[in-house]
Design goal:
The protein is mainly alpha-helical and about 130 residues long. Helix content is about 55%, strand content about 10%. The strands form two sheets. The protein has a three-stranded parallel beta sheet with strand order 1-4-5. The radius of gyration is 14 Å and the shape is globular. It starts with a strand and ends in a 5-residue tail after the last strand. The relative contact order is 0.20.
């Protein structure tokens, strides 16, 4: 895979809980065999979760520790502003989308309603791979 990918929070959760169909899980496996990139927003969202079984959080902590965390820079901030203005996207999703756009990455998510309509965003849903 020559393409670089950014994983959205819901993609990480559905991958780790094995909720994607088999082909989606295999697609995610192939991406993660190369590298794991997440926005700092995804890190925050994953670590803010209070699972019924506290040991479940360890799975997220482990995943995050093996991932590249991408922080907001000026380009990402500017892209976020444009996405929020043009698409009225919620701030966390706008930052995640802007991160992918600014860095030329493909966003992996199954949140079609929030990402599929953003024109300059390369977006893929593992459910359909």
């Amino acid at each position: 895979m020559g393409t670089r990918f950014l994983l959205d929070t819901c993609a990480v959760i559905k991958y780790l809980t094995q909720e994607f169909p088999v082909q989606g899980l295999e697609y995610m496996d192939a991406i993660l065999a190369v590298e794991s990139n997440i926005s700092m927003i995804t890190k925050i969202e994953l670590l803010s979760w209070n699972p019924p079984n506290p040991s479940d959080l360890d799975i997220y902590v482990d995943f995050i520790s093996r991932s590249n965390i991408i922080f907001i820079n000026e380009d990402i901030a500017n892209q976020t502003i444009q996405i929020r203005k043009q698409y009225r996207t919620q701030l966390p999703d706008a930052i995640i989308a802007a991160t992918a756009v600014a860095l030329g990455m493909t966003l992996i998510s199954d949140n079609d309603k929030d990402f599929d309509h953003i024109a300059n965003l390369n977006y893929q849903n593992p459910k359909y791979q």
